[in-house]
Amino acid sequence: MRTKGFTLIELAVVLAIIAVLAAILTPLVTGYLDQARVARAQADVRTIADALKLHQRDTGRYPIYLSAGNYPGTVSDGARTVLGGPGNNPAETVSWGTLGSVVATTTLESWINGNFSSVSTTNAFPKAAFRGPYVASIDSDPWGNKYLLNAANLNSTTNHAFVISAGPNGALDTAKDQSASSALTVGSDDVVAVIK
Q1: How many other CB atoms are found less than 10 A from the CB of residue 67?
Q2: DSSP assignment of 99-161, as one string?
Q3: For 57, which DSSP code?
Q4: Dihedral pair phi/psi, residue 171, rounded to 5°
Q5: Could you report the average pLDDT of every consecutive run of 10 residues in the chain (196 residues)?
Q6: pTM of the full predicted structure?
Q7: CB 54 within 8 A of CB 112
Q8: How do strand 91-92 and strand 171-172 relate by DSSP bridges?
Q9: Cβ distance 54 to 134 under 8 Å?
Q10: What's residue 76's pLDDT?
Q11: Amino acid 25: pLDDT
Q12: Quick check: 147 and 163 in contact, CB under 8 A?
């Protein structure tokens, strides 16, 4: 008399089939996750760049001046000429300067949404006025690093200004100061949105 149930061989065959399917599907799923992270970083750098352009369109200046007295001269806060979001400082394969000493202590989101250079908030359109906030929030990139803006180059006519994520390898591979007379060269897996 036979009782209902599965034999040991039947269970082993089912487990083997499940293991083979898992081995085949795991690389595909992780590949899609990596593509989704890159797509998110691309969308984020474009959003940040667009927010900077909107701020400049409304106020007539980029949000890179610590006070009205700094405009149009001193960019950012003293020697700190790179603006960054929350997260870790990425590693560098090309020099951006010592990131700890060049990244401003105020977050990129605060710079974009702040009115540090005291532009009027009451002027009617089309006169220059601060009409922020310009971006909802800026988080770290999908790999836990800061989005960076080479802010000093927004005040320059000779170099490209851009927002960058270090990408999956977590290291900046794109040179910070590149001549605007030629196309921007993006290094390795960095994700970049050019502002000017």
Answers
A1: 11
A2: HHHHB-SS-HHHHHH--TT---SSPPTTS--------S-----TTSBPPEE-GGGGG-SSB--
A3: H
A4: -130, 140
A5: 77 91 82 87 95 92 83 74 88 82 85 89 88 90 92 86 92 90 90 93
A6: 0.83
A7: no
A8: parallel
A9: yes
A10: 73
A11: 82
A12: yes
